[in-house]
């Protein structure tokens, strides 16, 4: 029975991390399929590569993943970059015979986070080998919730992450906290921003540290975009 429960928990965790990677998406969004490229997605949805990158905070257009959900229409109140033929896309303005798009703005984070632990960042995000950041400090260092949310996973069923917590903040954002020595909250519990939820440890790691991830629509994204400078 315990093995069955463990399998269900792991399956639930994978589903959370994938953010329902095979389900339908809302209008204005597109789920990446095998063989897709940003260029192809932009072309088939009559927009530009620059728009797709800007609307989704992509720094590397080659780093999209199968199952990832991308915005393919401009958010309300934003503008689009003119396409290569000079015809303006949605949200741009025209002046005489010329067409000029509004200056693209970097999309702001949808959540505001606090640092989940004190310590030194020993590894940054690269989207491939590192899906988050690693913060090193002494064993037992408090780990806190980066934002208010609900604990959707608390356990050690995912290999390589040790004792891990996943907190869901809304329908788009999750944060994950791995390698903890002790977990102080349980699944289903609501936690407040800054509340201690674990103690830093070295479970499934060769050193004491917190591995911290931010997931947007199921895709890992650079936590530095959401954390205040320090």
TrEMBL record:
In its UniProt entry, the species of origin is given as: Caballeronia glebae
Q: Keywords assigned by UniProt?
A: Lipoprotein, Signal
Q: Matching Gene3D superfamilies, A to Z?
A: Glucose Permease (Domain IIA), LysM domain
UniProt-recorded Gene Ontology molecular function terms: metalloendopeptidase activity
Q: Per its UniProt record, what InterPro entries does this chain match?
A: Cell_wall_metabolism_enzyme (IPR050570), Dup_hybrid_motif (IPR011055), LysM (IPR018392), LysM_dom_sf (IPR036779), M23ase_b-sheet_dom (IPR016047)
| Pfam families tied to this protein | LysM, Peptidase_M23
Looking at the record, which segments are called Disordered? 83-112
The signal peptide here is 1-18
| Record protein name field | Lipoprotein NlpD
Task: Give all residue intervals belonging to the LysM domain.
Answer: 28-72
Composition-biased stretches, type Low complexity, lie in 83-102
- Gene Ontology cellular component annotations, sorted alphabetically: cell division site; cell outer membrane
Per the record, the domain of life is Bacteria
Q: Which family does it belong to?
A: Belongs to the E.coli NlpD/Haemophilus LppB family.
């Amino acid at each position: 029975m315990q093995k069955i429960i463990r399998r269900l928990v792991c399956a639930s965790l994978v589903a959370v991390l994938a953010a329902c990677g095979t389900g339908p998406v809302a209008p204005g969004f597109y789920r990446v399929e095998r063989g897709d490229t940003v260029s192809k997605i932009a072309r088939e949805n009559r927009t530009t590569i620059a728009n797709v990158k800007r609307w989704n905070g992509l720094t590397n257009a080659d780093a999209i993943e199968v199952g990832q959900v991308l915005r393919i229409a401009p958010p309300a109140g934003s503008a689009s970059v003119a396409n290569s033929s000079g015809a303006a896309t949605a949200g741009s303005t025209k002046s005489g015979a010329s067409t000029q798009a509004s200056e693209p703005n970097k999309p702001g984070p949808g959540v505001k986070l606090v640092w989940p632990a004190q310590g030194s960042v020993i590894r940054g995000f690269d989207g491939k080998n590192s899906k988050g950041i690693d913060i090193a400090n002494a064993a037992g260092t408090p780990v806190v919730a980066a934002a208010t949310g609900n604990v959707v996973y608390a356990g050690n069923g995912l290999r390589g992450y040790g004792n891990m917590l996943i907190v869901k903040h809304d329908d788009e954002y999750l944060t994950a906290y791995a390698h903890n020595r002790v977990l102080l909250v349980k699944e289903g519990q609501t936690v407040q921003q800054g509340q201690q939820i674990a103690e830093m440890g070295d479970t499934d790691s060769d050193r004491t540290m917190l591995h911290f991830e931010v997931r947007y629509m199921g895709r890992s994204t650079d936590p530095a975009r959401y954390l205040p400078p320090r």
